[in-house]
Amino acid sequence: MAVNDYVMVSPQVSHYADWAKGQIIEVENNPWRGIVLVVRMENGDIFWDVADSFKKEV
Length: 58
Prior knowledge:
Elements: E1 6-9, H1 11-14, E2 20-30, E3 34-41, E4 46-50, E5 54-56
């Protein structure tokens, strides 16, 4: 996954009712957590978590 890719954000991260689409705006290699993605949703909300909390949009 890379910057500008679209991903689906887990409900555990977003607290939305279902998986929601967002765009990656930053990828961080965090020494304690591993790969962390920062994602901007269409409504402007921003979420971040480890890459396992996101899935590539098909």
